[in-house]
Amino acid sequence: MRRRTSVPPVLPQELRKVSSLERGLEILRCFTASEQILGVNAIAGRLSIPRPSALRLLATLCEARYLARVGMSEQYRIHSEAILLGQAFLSGSTLVRRARPVLQAFVDRFQSHTVLCVPRPEGMLTLLYLHSKAVRAKPRMGPGSIFAPENTAVGHAWLWTEGPEVQSEFLARLRRAEGEGGDRGGVAELFQSFHDLERNGVCTVQDRRRGTSMSAASIDVNDGSRAIVASILNLGDQAATSVAYRLGLRDAAENVADVLLRHQQLSRNE
Amino acid sequence: MNRNSNLERGHSGSSRTTRSGEEDVAKDGSEVRVLARGLAVVRAFRPRNAALTNSELSALVGLPRSTISRITAMLLQLGYLEYQIEQARYRLSASVLTLGFSSIVTSYARQLAQEHMHRFAEANDLLIVLAVRDGVVMACQSVFRGRGALTIRMEEGSRIALPHGAMGRAWLASLAPKPREALWQEVQKVYPGGMSRNEFEDALRQYSRRGFCAAVSKLEPDLLGIATTLQLPGELEMCVLGCAVPAFRYRQGSSQEELGRKLVGLRDAITQALAVIDPPKED
Lengths: 270, 283
Description:
The complex is a heterodimer of chains A (270) and B (283). Chain A has helices at 20-29, 40-47, 51-63, 80-91, 94-110, 153-160, 164-179, 186-200, 243-269; strands at residues 37-39, 67-69, 75-78, 113-120, 123-131, 146-147, 203-207, 212-220, 226-234. Chain A contains nine helices and nine strands. In chain A, helix 2 (40-47) crosses helix 3 (51-63), helix 5 (94-110) runs antiparallel to helix 9 (243-269) and helix 6 (153-160) crosses helix 8 (186-200). In chain A, strands 6-5-4-9-8-7 form a six-stranded antiparallel β-sheet. Chain A has a three-stranded antiparallel β-sheet with strand order 1-3-2. With 283 residues, chain B is α+β, with helices and mostly antiparallel strands. Chain B has ten helices and eight strands. Chain B has helices spanning 5-9, 22-43, 54-61, 65-78, 101-105, 108-124, 166-174, 177-190, 197-210, 253-276, and strands spanning 81-84, 89-92, 127-134, 137-145, 159-161, 213-216, 223-230, 239-246. In chain B, the strands form two sheets. In chain B, strands 5-4-3-8-7-6 form a six-stranded antiparallel β-sheet, with helices on both faces. In chain B, strands 1-2 form a two-stranded antiparallel sheet. In chain B, a hairpin with a 6-residue loop joins strand 6 and strand 7. In chain B, helix 2 (22-43) crosses helix 4 (65-78), helix 3 (54-61) crosses helix 4 and helix 6 runs antiparallel to helix 10 (253-276).
């Protein structure tokens, strides 16, 4: 029997003000791999809230074990509940579970660093990070880390799948940034990526400052959404410019989509 | 302290020191109550992000359905929940990974520990796991396997009841006597008969004498588990390092002892490496 279709719930206008729930979650977002410990004043400053309000929210987050105080100081760090919450999402993610073996095979073949990302308002959010045992892990890269969509292959591959409205808005932002003295060549690089994605299904963007080259391809997740797989090699690595590597990445993306489709069909049949 | 106390009383004791007066107290109460309730709602999706309706959430969290509806609508608007229209159910969205998760799992300490684990799994042809405790289960966070361990059914996200394997026993044994006894009582309630008192005391003896626990899996008797604890810098709770091998390869007590010593050696190597090396700067 077909279930009744429900309309997604919409929050009444009067409740759309900033709530303590939003602020509390904003506090958790302040903690990143590069900022593992934060003081109450820094948190209050970032959220533009009075110190007493910050203290009350922090106390609630500590009581629920999302945060813990560092000794008797006014500094805080992430506690176990935040880890278990992220773990719950990853454990229940079919995309992560099905993509892992496919991407591991790619990583082992080309000895690269590979990430699986999904678009979020704050940037490209990493769900999965794999690296070959022949290379050391990239510092602070892993589930939860975010790539800026500008000037990265992972961002370009995402934008390529978006409609003209989103693309135009992004392009305008990039042009504004160039006009304000930002990274020149960003727009040309984006068009080159679109051209490569159109022709080969893979784009590559070099990061000369970090000495790396990132290639990316888009994955059709079969539920109307897209994920992006991106692989990172050092600029000196010969594989980074090889056709086999780029085709390998495109094939890995297609294989993940196939595996997801088969899983969906099996689930429906059951 | 009862974790859900803010759901009911709506204030946090420690916050009272900064303000006074009835109006302030009332405001404080409602301010933290919304947050406490929201945290309780997201917690209900653990451990595997099951899709839940508002009614199911209401039963799980113990709040009226109307309150739950407001909270889920808010979490949906903020992007932390997804809504499945066909089933009228909610699930956690990928955005929950931005709530501090990366500050721990992408830490240099974890990455370095994982590199050691990866090499250990290959060198010893076994499966190795880094797990954290979640209530009365051990939740596997990182899993590496050597070629001989391809058939062992354990992956990132797997959950093993505390009494059912070596990892839970090592965790129990590492605790101070009072919290250990309290957790043991809790385990007995949730898994009656899961671990006898004799097995519990044997785990304590093993851990204090050798620094690790060895146990044949209660669910898969052809699997032998060996586990020890690992304190990673920057993390408040102890992790457990556990390895699993086909039991037939380690029938002899001496070979179990040897593997246990290797695992403790791995733990010490990770601890030493973290003590002497400065984390690399970001690229």
